[in-house]
Amino acid sequence: MPTNAILTALQRKTDTQRIQLRVGRIWEAINRNNKTVLHTNVEFMDQQGGHILAIIRNNQRTLIMPQLKEQSVYDISNFKIVPGPSTYRSVDMDMAINFFYKTTIQEAEDNNSIPHYKFELQPFHRVKDLVGRVKNLIDVIGMVTTIGRLEKRSNGVEKLDVALTDDRLVAAFNYSLLATVCNPNQKSVSVSGGSRQQRTITTLCSHYWTPGKKILDKASLSSTDATKTFFNIEYEPLNDLKKSLSDSSGSNGARLLPPATVHFVATDEKDVQQIHIKDVLEMKIPSGKDQVRCLCTATITEILYGNGWLYNCCSICARAVHPTEGKYYCNACNDTNFTVSQRYRVVARIKDDTGTTTVTLFNKEAEQLIGVPIQKIITEMGEPSHMDKIPAPVANLIGKLCAFQIKINNYNITHGCEEYTVTRVSECSAAGTKSPNTVDAAQKNKKNRLE
Ligand SMILES: [Zn+2]
């Protein structure tokens, strides 16, 4: 007897049943260390609104994968029900489907009786309670409000931040989430909601994981191999969200705006002001706050030499360590039992139309701009005596126009210390990162010249 329900198949526990299923998504699980395929995942959906995962091992791949296409419907006979993954589940089920030599897969006519999509949606306000829980990946649905610039790490990984809102009551609540789409397999990352002309740009992201850090009340989502983003699909909850977003902004007298492109996406982005260097130098920290973050667009004019371009740190806590009597001791770890490694600390003079100041780029931000891991430079420099020279890849920062998000604290002001820590950086002149605003500005300049 053929069945149309995954649940029935699970209860029967025999290898000889037949079931009609639609393939939802197909994706490969990748070993991040050596970029090899661990196995292939296939999500199947049934007529009852259920879904289940099938794991295709590498030795079955050439036989089975050519027979399966996303969104197509199949009659599948003779399969096994086996334990599913216990963590990072994309489908919240204890069991999974397994194919074996007796399995037959036959494409069936699609009469649309099986839904096209199935997600286990989490509302945004619930996501913060899921931080650090690794059992299930998270599905969310929301509208893209801002898109960051594509960041490229020196290991080739591309990263893009996107802010989402599921704000159903615009005036009363503001639930928004930050999602990071990371591409460990070095294919290009793309998140766009279609053309900027579109008034409502809605997205649906699925299968994110919240990493184990929670900043204040906000949690952010990180992509995994299993992450796939769907835009404007025919999916009832998405249509409902579109309608409620459109209605609530309409009743506010505003219309929905297309997503904006910004340098750095954060859910508290409104707190970070774009200012000139002159304003940085004259900044006063509001009482009750111990620091101010701001955004400055400036050109690097010089790499300062004083304290070198790197520091020695404790391999355990990454804090700076200094040798005493030839031995390194870490005050933070209260120990000598660690290896000393090096991290970037690049002090750069930056300049805009209003003035000049200095900023410090620590490891992550420095590496992002330099584009080379520090260990590679150290190896290439060879002799330790060369370490007091500024290596070419670091000197090459001179001339770069960047957006710097910097931190101004009381120490900067009370000690007259003009060495602001860069908390985020993005290169403005990098190819493919031109924002629509830059285009607008360029056109405006052209127009001004013509007039
Ligand atoms: Zn330490």
From TrEMBL:
Family that this chain belongs to: Belongs to the replication factor A protein 1 family.
Organism: Daucus carota subsp. sativus
Residue intervals of the Replication protein A 70 kDa DNA-binding subunit B/D first OB fold domain: 9-107
Gene Ontology molecular-function annotations: DNA binding; zinc ion binding
InterPro entries attached to this UniProt entry: Euk_RPA1_DBD_C (IPR047192), NA-bd_OB-fold (IPR012340), Rep_factor-A_C (IPR013955), RFA1B/D_OB_1st (IPR003871)
Keywords: DNA-binding, Metal-binding, Zinc, Zinc-finger
Annotated Replication factor A C-terminal domain residues: 297-426
The protein's name in its UniProt record: Uncharacterized protein
